[in-house]
């Protein structure tokens, strides 16, 4: 039995160790012949009468700059038996990596300091070491005039996987005149050793309202109510990223318009009443309006957050 221990470096040199043991476990001092065949079965290298000495021998042979790709065969023959093993020759591909920029789920227009993160990772998850060129500014329009130009903050630093930093809004919008423009971050990473570059651009749009308030009603419920019966409804409260806003104090007001005839005179008046609610874990509020008189002709609902 001739177990083979293989070590190789591609694409230039292939090295292998041939180990032979006798039945007693001591090194066998016989000689062997070693043959190397490419995937097409062509014998490209051979080593005749290789002395094993104490039972192990190292051999090397060069591979061409463009060797045949596939499974190569190494055979060892000691004149009595033959053992073989294979190794694969494949094209070498540089590891690929991606660059990402992460912002908070949402940012209000009056936020002054915004955290951000830039990450460079290989597709298999390991961090990339290299140089990070980072530009932070307000969104740049191709048609912008000189008065609309705002500062661009440029930084060059080393990165090992991820880099956390903060954006000072005053540094890119000193006069706070451009709340409507998105914040733009451009990250360029140059990999150490290879010089491979990867860039990405990410935009952050700021929001004016910290909450979204939406009545959940079907088509009929939106246009009709029945006098003498309670009116039940549902309100959904969400953050700007549409995640549920739990525990938000909300005031719902109903303005009821009433019309009736008194002594041949048509009288009309409005009555407004309000009630406080708190959104549940799913961001919902279930509300109920008390039964209305038969002279009620319309109801207008108004909602506002009491935490703003």
Automatic annotation (TrEMBL):
This is C3 and PZP-like alpha-2-macroglobulin domain-containing protein 8. Keywords: Signal. It comes from the Eukaryota. Pfam families: MG3, MG4. It comes from Trichonephila clavata. Residues 91-172, 222-306 form the Macroglobulin domain. InterPro entries: A2M/Complement_sys, Ig-like_fold, MG3, MG4. Residues 1-15 form the signal peptide.
């Amino acid at each position: 039995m001739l177990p083979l221990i293989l070590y190789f470096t591609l694409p230039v040199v292939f090295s292998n160790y041939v180990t032979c043991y006798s039945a007693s476990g001591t090194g066998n001092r016989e000689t062997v012949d070693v043959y190397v065949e490419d995937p097409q079965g062509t014998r490209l290298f051979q080593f005749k009468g290789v002395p094993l000495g104490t039972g192990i021998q190292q051999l090397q042979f060069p591979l061409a700059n463009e060797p045949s790709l596939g499974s190569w065969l190494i055979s060892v023959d000691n004149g009595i038996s033959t053992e073989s093993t294979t190794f694969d020759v494949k094209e070498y591909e540089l590891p690929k990596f991606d660059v990402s920029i992460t912002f908070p789920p949402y940012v209000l227009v009056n936020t002054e300091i915004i955290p951000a993160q830039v990450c460079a990772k290989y597709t298999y998850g390991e961090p990339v070491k290299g140089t990070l060129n980072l530009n932070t500014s307000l969104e740049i329009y191709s048609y912008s005039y000189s008065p609309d130009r705002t500062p661009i903050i440029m930084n060059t630093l080393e990165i090992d996987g991820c880099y956390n930093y903060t954006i000072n809004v005053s540094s890119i919008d000193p006069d706070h005149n451009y709340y409507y423009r998105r914040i733009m971050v451009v990250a360029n990473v140059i990999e150490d050793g290879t010089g491979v570059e990867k860039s990405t651009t990410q935009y952050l749009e700021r929001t004016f309202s910290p909450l979204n308030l939406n009545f959940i009603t079907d088509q009929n419920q939106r246009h009709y109510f029945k006098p003498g019966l309670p009116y039940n409804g549902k309100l959904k409260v969400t953050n700007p990223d549409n995640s549920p806003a739990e525990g938000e104090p909300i005031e719902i007001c109903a303005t009821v318009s009433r019309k009736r005839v008194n002594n041949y005179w048509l009288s009309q008046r409005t009555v407004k009443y309000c009630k406080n609610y708190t959104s549940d874990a799913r961001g919902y509020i279930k509300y109920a309006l008390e039964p209305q008189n038969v002279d009620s002709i319309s109801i207008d609902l108004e909602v506002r957050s009491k935490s703003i």
